[in-house]
Specification:
four-stranded antiparallel sheet; seven-stranded mixed sheet; 391 residues; binds pyridoxal-5'-phosphate; 40% helix; 15 strands; alpha/beta
């Protein structure tokens, strides 16, 4: 093990900050550290760089710069969007979402009474065995009382991509606001908001090689908006708080780079992902893909190895410096499979043993070779210890 470099296949959790991103951020710590709200030139000049970053983010999304609000993370963007819509239409008491949302949306909609002081009815779209939704079922959920729909663009665990274009158009036809949590999609799939009926879109820097602690929310021109953070006049009065200048500048650069790398994401990165997926499924018995084969992010594969625990697999992988994530998390002493895999109806024996591998442009073919070499023995060793595995 010693001497083996880390094989990082957990890019849906977070990504390395691109060296080019670090380079553009550096001047904002020591040379240009002024506050963009200051009256003096030293501070004021910093504001121009925030506006450049805003243009770079907007360009990646096919939006106008005035439609981009910088936030601290994807979670803040999600809360800002949903609570804006609910405050704009206090008389509407129904929300449509899906059963596979990230906790940033899931726990918000489960606790809306705490945040708004009002009670809401929440309809959560079920998913099929591949994790996909049914548009006819979605159509039936939309009512005159629906304030907002919030459905993710791509799922963080399986990589499944949802039909956001159609869903947004269907919401618009009913006069309902539409939000999408695109934290996992931005930079991996082409997005052109100018052609869509999306009203709010959330994104996060650290999923596309910018630093942690910066995000953005797209708010379509004319869409209701209520600030989440009261305070100064920053972000045109839409979000109080001194701007995280260096990270915003880095985020802009990362978006410009993502636009250039999109093709690579869909060819080289996808090919590596496919080779790993096919190799694991072929070499390890009782393994299966979780998620849609076709409608999926190019960098993600989620594979279940039956009759073993995901956390045990990760610990063994860790001994070989391989980083990935598991679909089961140890909560209150019991190993609970993820809500996403449960919603998909993945059998418990498989849901417990799921591992998500997520690539980035910084992975190599050697990483794939190494994981393909190590995984069969890891799973076999664990299965020999499992009382459920027939030896
Ligand atoms: N939404 C999705 C789909 C995510 O995958 C994540 C992070 O994993 C978030 C929201 C939260 O983003 P952040 O970590 O920037 O708050």
């Amino acid at each position: 093990m010693s001497g083996q470099k880390t094989v990082y296949l957990d890019n849906n959790a977070t990504t390395m900050v691109a060296p080019e991103v670090v380079d553009v951020m550096m001047p904002f710590f020591i040379e240009k550290y002024g506050n963009p709200s200051s009256m003096h030139t030293f501070g004021g000049q910093v504001g121009e760089h925030i506006e450049t970053a805003r243009r770079q983010v907007a360009e990646l999304l096919g939006a106008s710069p005035e439609e981009i609000l910088f936030t601290s993370c994807g979670t803040e963007s999600d809360s800002t969007a949903l609570l804006s819509a609910l405050r704009a239409y206090p008389e509407k008491r129904h929300i449509v979402t899906s059963k596979v949302e990230h906790p940033a949306i899931k726990s918000l909609v489960e606790n809306l009474e705490v945040f708004t002081g009002r009670r809401y009815r929440v309809s959560s779209l079920p998913v099929d065995r591949q994790g996909m939704i049914d548009l006819a079922e979605y159509q039936q959920m939309l009512t005159d009382d629906t304030a907002i729909v919030s459905v993710m663009w791509a799922n963080n665990e399986t990589g499944n991509i949802y039909p956001i274009e159609k869903m947004a158009a269907m919401a618009k036809a009913r006069g309902i606001l539409f939000h999408t949590d695109a934290v996992q999609a931005v930079g991996k799939v082409a997005i052109n908001l100018a052609e869509l009926d999306v009203d709010y879109l959330s994104m996060s820097g650290h999923k596309l090689h910018a630093p942690k602690g910066v995000g953005a929310l797209y708010v379509r021109k004319g869409t209701p908006f209520v600030p989440f953070l009261a305070g100064g006049h920053q972000e045109s009065g839409h979000r109080g708080g001194t701007e995280n200048v260096a990270s915003i500048v880095g985020f802009g650069k990362a978006c410009a780079m993502a636009a250039e790398r999109m093709e690579e994401e869909n060819t080289r990165v996808k090919a590596m992902r496919d080779r790993l997926e096919e190799g694991l499924l072929a070499s390890i018995p009782k393994s299966m893909l979780n998620g849609s084969k076709e409608n999926r992010l190019p960098n993600t594969t989620n594979i279940s190895f039956e009759f073993v625990e995901g956390e045990a697999i990760l610990l063994h992988m860790n001994l070989y410096n391989i980083c990935a994530s598991s679909g089961s998390a140890c909560t209150s002493g019991s190993l609970e499979p993820s809500h996403v895999l449960r919603a998909m109806g993945v059998p418990l024996t498989a849901a417990h043993g799921s591992v998500r591998f997520s690539f980035s442009t910084y992975n190599s073919e050697e990483d794939v070779d190494y994981v393909l070499e190590k995984m069969p023995a890891i799973i076999d060793t664990l299965r020999q210890l499992s009382p459920f595995w027939e030896k």
